[in-house]
Specification:
Number of domains: 1
Helix content: 55-70%
Largest sheet: none
Radius of gyration: 16 Å
CATH superfamily: DhaL domain
Distance between the termini: 9 Å
Length: 203
């Protein structure tokens, strides 16, 4: 059964592989640091727990999130760290990530990011790609091996659909109507997270 350490390792590797792509996406609308931030942040999250013998999934997630927040205290780094830390709170006392608990993990991650960033669905942010992935997991909660690839597909399609949306949050919102011409870099990160989950579940 996949565990949170394996997922964090996969996420760290995926962010490193996609670092340049995230830099390019962010460079069109932001300050080009997203690839660096996500690579360093998820690397720090994984490094914080990879050698731990802690059995409590919640404590592992919280420790990973705290390490990430310390390593990359940027806006996006803080949001991703908040997701992990909130998942840690939700799963405290859990030692086995069965299918329902994976759904709890992703719901808590979503809630942590939304509560910290205050964005809403439709604002053209990370949430707009993450939420469809979460819904796919919820629909297939009895079988993550089947649901995870569907969630990855849903998140990727939702990321691609951010082109045409009006940005209402973050740096891209400054462009007003001009923001419709761009893909949202944060949504690209959300798609990568679900891609990594699908890879982890299918190993």
């Amino acid at each position: 059964m996949a565990d949170v350490k394996e997922l964090l390792r996969t996420w760290a590797n995926l962010m490193a592989v996609n670092k340049q792509r995230l830099i390019e996406l962010d460079g069109m609308v932001g300050d080009s640091d997203l690839g660096l931030t996500m690579t360093d942040g998820y690397a720090a999250a994984y490094a914080a727990v990879k050698d731990s013998d802690q059995a409590d999934v919640g404590l592992l997630c919280y420790a990973a999130g705290k390490a990430m927040g310390a390593a990359v205290p940027s806006t996006m780094g803080t949001l991703m760290a908040s997701g992990l830390m909130n998942a840690g709170k939700a799963l405290r006392g859990v030692e086995i990530l069965d299918d329902p608990n994976w759904v709890r993990f992703f719901q808590a991650y979503y809630d942590g990011v939304q509560n910290r960033g205050k964005a809403q669905l439709g604002d053209k942010t990370f949430l707009d790609a993450f939420h469809p992935g979460l819904e796919a997991l919820q629909s297939g909660a009895a079988d993550m091996r089947t649901a995870a690839p569907l969630a990855a597909k849903a998140a990727q399609e939702a990321f691609e659909a951010t082109k045409g949306m009006l940005a209402k949050h973050g740096r891209m919102a400054i462009r007003g109507e001009g923001s419709r011409a761009y893909l949202d870099p944060g949504a690209a990160v959300a798609a990568l997270l679900f891609d990594g989950f699908a890879q982890t579940m299918l190993r």
